[in-house]
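User: Is it possible to get a 3D structure for a protein together with its bound compound? The compound here is iron/sulfur cluster. I've pasted both below.
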Amino acid sequence: MKPIGITTTVPIELLSAAGYKAIDLNNVFINDPSPDRLVSIAERSGFPLNCCTWIKGIYGVCIDRGIDTVLCVTTGDCSNTIMLMEVLKLRGFRVIPFAYPDQPDTRRMQECLETLAKNLGTNLEDAEKVRRDLAPCRQLTGELDELTWEENLVSGWENHLWLISSSDFNGDHRQYRLQLEQFLSQCRQRQPYGDGLRLAYIGVPPVFAQDLYRFLEQQGATVVFNEVQRQFAMPKPGGSLAEQYSNYTYPYSIFNRLDDITTEIQQRRVDGVIHYVQAFCHRAIGDIIFRRMINIPILTLEGNSAYVLTPHLQTKVEAFIDMLSRSRQLLEQGR
Ligand code: SF4
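Assistant: Yes, that's possible. Here is the predicted structure of the complex:
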């Protein structure tokens, strides 16, 4: 299968049906031993210092790995991707645009999928067959999530890793399924984690993920809800591709995301929310809405190009956890 870079979660069923192997460029970037090196490739090509690190990292991966075809999402993800796409074209890449509809409407989604299928030289019937092949993987991600928040058998970091990898199933869904089955059976043998603070993580994935989750766990808190990562796994697959990608909340209005977030916060008995924002990202403005609409404590953390949790951010996290612990103690004493 021919490799194709993807800039965010897209209908990979269509890519597979067209004979492509999707590679999530974000995951390649952040798992590189030296992500700075990839960012500097972009900066040497003229990407400004005040451009989001993820965009620069994606560009760096395209150049560094020689991926010559890239599917760029032009509506429903990131306004910077449009200009990234133009620069990639200038550099001789084959660029395929894909636009999510501006609302989660199944009929309009169907039209967008048909346009993409035509551009890729495939059809929706073949893509539906791939959807059926991927269904066991998606079901396993649902089980992983339940073991995280219901059983306390999977850590927030493990949950993050598996769910975020579902954008491309690490390039091999059969292997992904096998490895996840093994992982879940090991987790079922574990003793549940203690009764620590329960957190939700909302927003785009962080550039310092491993450090953040590890630090939270050291402070006695665990993430029981990874919002966007869970969406990447398509928790509501519906009855067709059009329904699946209409139920996927990330490309649409923040209020669609809020419905999902508030429902899960309540169901998962979350004590506090970490809202991650990326420097120079338009999505950071959504913090205004989250703070108004979510009625439990929120900590907003901004990341830029440091791939570790800086001492300054550690202090913010510690203070937040401390505040949540005190609130919980007071609540318990009052009972
Ligand atoms: S973090 Fe924001 S600016 Fe950066 S790629 Fe994602 S959506 Fe775009």
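The mean pLDDT is 97. DSSP finds 15 helices and eight strands in the chain.
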